[in-house]
Amino acid sequence: MAMNFEDRLRDRDPWPIGDECSAGRVLELLSTRTAFLVVRECFYGTTRFDDFVARIGASAPAVSRALAQLKAARIVAPVPYREPGSRAREEYRLTEAGEELLPVLLSLMQWGDAHLQEGRPPLSFVEADTGRPIRVRVTADPAPQTPSDDIEIRLNPDCRSPLAAAVGAAQEARESSRPGDPSDG
User: Fold this and answer.
1) What is the pLDDT of residues 37-85, one digit of tens each?
2) Is residue 185 predicted with pLDDT exceeding 60?
3) What CA–CA distance (Å, rounded) separates 38 from 28?
């Protein structure tokens, strides 16, 4: 199966799409795993450089290059912050253009969940208010978009992955470090 072309485009030999292809331009922009994962982490709420390095597992120079590339393309914007007693620094937030990458990210994750995961994927994305699954579909009908801050990321309960094990261990550690209820004793 393939898409159809209008009559004047059916003979594709005379038209060199090359650098005009928007898909090619997006791939150039997100050409490294690090750049793509920085965008993912922005949607997950990561904003600070050291946190990008730790969460992505890339080197500081690779994250720095990715942030510079995304900043130049106006996908992320630096926002100054200063912690008491420290120098001023920048954190990074998605711009409107960056937010518009949400369907791209979710569609790739949705495809990966269907074709690359063994068993159930570790995470699901749902509408925060209703719990309805978020899905990306190609449609000719205008459909309301769900903004990223209306999406809740959930751990799939029957997923057996390192992520599920790490989340469970972290939750147990938090619960065991809480002071006991005074009425227990």
Assistant:
1) 999 999 999 999 999 999 999 999 999 999 999 999 999 999 999 989 9
2) no
3) 15
The 3-state secondary structure of the chain reads: CCCCCCHHHCCCCCCCCHHHCHHHHHHHHCCCHHHHHHHHHHHCCCCEHHHHHHHHCCCHHHHHHHHHHHHHCCCEEEEEECCCCCCCEEEEEECHHHHCCHHHHHHHHHHHHHHCCCCCCCEEEEECCCCCECCCCCCCCCCCCCCHHHEEEEECCCCCCHHHHHHHHHHHHHHHHCCCCHHHC
pTM: 0.81
- CA gap 177, 183 in Å, rounded: 17
